[in-house]
Design brief:
386 residues; mainly alpha; 18 helices; globular
């Protein structure tokens, strides 16, 4: 059994905590309105959700890229390998997703817009070309991930069949690099064409760029490229590994600057300090690739972290282990259905709601992990061993 890497667990735990904090801080609105410092801190959390999801994308690409490289270093790229990869992925991601989808559909049946179709969510088509529906709002990122799992191996196989005729492990790995770079280029072209077909300044950055699959095909690819550097131990890997402390600091500074860009974007009065056209082009085309690179270059340092405290290690491992069910339930199922319309008139009520929200999230996520996720993964390992 492979030993879990604490650094990867730390990245995953950080990502899910950023996302959940972003939504849960709304329950402290009374504190935010009446305490200056709390208000400023809460304002900073408005970018946490965006950052958390982008960390998930890079981490997913890094992990899946590593798995694919390991597999195809030993085995040729073929249809059997595709079925095995898809089966192992979907055993992990789909059962819990479909359970939450059915529950939400049942609970929201009379409020769902007539243009929202459950079949689109089943097939992850709900935001492939267009903005994501209001229903099950957090599923937008899951759709991007699932299309990555589905399309990336297919393109690897097609590239293998078309370009390379001989079985060579080095060539197999090189295909992964080429396909990942193609993804980056295709996503860049899609965004470039989109902003020049429409008025660049009035494009909704969040719904029309950030949460649309075709615009974010490259989202996990920066993690894949990092995995390629790690697995092949090329020149880029040597430099990053040698100076990982410096890259970590540079990455953190870059992330902070990137989050400042989003803050400026949300406050039009600040945009006047820049050339508007250039600013919006940068935001709509280059922002997410640059942020992803900053996130990726922090990984080599974080992966090497080994805490001395067993309590810290177990806490991080625990949050990491329930991160997927936490993401599935934290907003549409728990926040919107239970907490959104609460009338929190006192500080005590506000604080109690905040703590209760976290208690429900963690308890329900743990239940899903133990009752559904773990048994399914044990079954998966029997029918689809590595």
């Amino acid at each position: 059994m492979k030993t879990k890497n604490f650094g990867l667990d730390l990245i995953r735990a950080t990502a899910i905590l950023l996302v959940v904090v972003y939504h849960s801080v709304n329950l402290l609105q009374l504190f935010i309105d009446n305490f200056f410092i709390v208000g400023k801190i809460a304002a900073c959390t408005q970018v946490f959700g965006l950052l958390g999801v982008e960390i998930f994308f890079v981490l997913s690409g890094f992990l899946i890229g590593g798995i694919i490289i390991d597999y195809f270093t030993i085995n040729p790229v073929n249809i059997i390998g595709l079925y095995s990869f898809w089966g192992r992925r979907w055993f992990r991601t789909l059962p819990q997703y479909y359970i939450i989808l059915v529950v939400l559909f049942y609970l929201n049946y009379h409020q769902i817009d007539s243009n929202t179709h459950i079949t689109h969510f089943i097939l992850f088509f709900q935001n492939f070309f267009s903005p994501h529906p209001i229903f099950f709002a957090e599923a937008w990122s899951l759709s991007i991930e699932e299309w990555f799992y589905f399309l990336f191996p297919i393109l690897l196989l097609l590239s293998r069949l078309i370009i390379y005729s001989k079985k060579n492990s080095q060539m197999e790995v090189r295909i992964i690099l080429n396909v990942a770079l193609c993804y980056v280029i295709i996503a860049f072209i899609c965004k470039f064409l989109y902003i020049f077909l429409f008025n660049n300044a009035i494009i909704n950055f969040d719904t029309q760029i950030r949460k649309v699959v075709i615009m974010r095909l490259d989202a996990p690819m920066y993690g894949v490229l990092l995995a390629y550097c790690f697995k092949t131990k090329n020149v880029i890997y040597s430099k990053i590994n040698k100076y990982k402390h410096h890259f970590f600091i540079f990455g953190i500074l870059g992330i902070l600057i990137s989050l400042l860009v989003i803050y400026i974007s949300d406050h039009p009065s600040y945009v006047h300090f820049f050339d508007k056209e250039v600013f919006y082009i940068f935001r709509n085309i280059l922002y997410f690739p640059i942020l992803a690179v900053f996130i990726a270059i922090t990984f080599p340092f974080i992966i090497c972290i080994q805490p001395k405290s067993k309590i810290i290690k177990k806490s991080i491992n625990f949050i990491s282990s329930i991160s997927y069910p936490m993401y599935l339930i934290h907003y549409s199922l728990v926040y919107l259905l239970i907490f959104k319309d609460l009338n929190l008139e006192t500080y005590f009520m506000s604080l109690k709601a905040f703590l209760l929200y976290w208690f429900i999230i963690i308890t329900l996520s743990l239940a899903l992990h133990l009752i559904i996720e773990k048994p399914i993964l044990r079954f998966r390992d029997k029918v689809l061993p590595r």
